[in-house]
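This section describes the prediction task in plain terms. A model, or a person checking by hand, is given the sequence of a single protein chain and must write out its three-dimensional structure as a string of tokens. No templates, partner chains or ligands are provided. The sample shown here is typical of the held-out split.
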Amino acid sequence: MKKLLIVLCCCVSGVLFGNVESVELLMKYNCETNEYDAHLVIMEGSATDIPGRAQFNAQITIVVPTGESFMITELHMPLQNNQGYEGTVPMPWNLGNPALAPEAQPESDFYPLTPTLSPASFYNNLEEGDEVKLFSFVVGSSGQFDDRVRFYKNGEDPIYSDPGMGGGNYSIGIAIGGANQLYSGSSVESCVTSTNGPLALEVEAYPNPFQDKFTIGLSSEAKSIEVMGSNGQLFFQSRNIKGKTVTIDANTYPSGVYYIQVSTEMGIQVKKIVKY
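The expected answer:
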């Protein structure tokens, strides 16, 4: 009788809590803010217990037209330390090493985003059909919808071995409540109405190309500046930048392509610069 009771309890528990089985991504253009909102859509299954609501490894890559700025403006979900639905601090989605105008697809820049897994982050209850806003971002300064802004397409966009991708894997994968990958596709909802002006944050780097040194000009003070090589090697890093310009001595840098990642209170921007 005890064994039967245990089996019944496990079955009831499985029905009650369950697991998310499949998710998609939905990109919505917000006509009021001129931002793109990335949503997680629950396609199959549900999760209401703590393990099932936990964020595991993931990668979401945003594709934008070459040369357009990319900046995360607001984080929404999941929430750190949200086991008891009391979390208030959104989990950061970290910007990885971008692939800018790769030879395999020179009309596009690829920006990969991955979650910070410590401290652990959790969604609220997830039910089939739910749309959960993950983060908001802006592209360029036109304040208008651009149908070239989209999620990376697994199986269609360039892969790690293609020219210019630098060996990086930019495919999308999402795991919630376990290690299994749940991602099955994406879509975009557009709106072309514009109500706001250009972005407040501007970043420029000059001269480009450079020889011995270059200067980064900012429209607002930066929290951090990083300079990375095309292979992801970190050449320069500085935090709590004071002032609107930073000059970097790059005399010892080898010739090639570099990526400047600037983080401010308004988000993150990446600029490409070349040493000849």
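For orientation: The chain has two domains: 19-189, 203-275.
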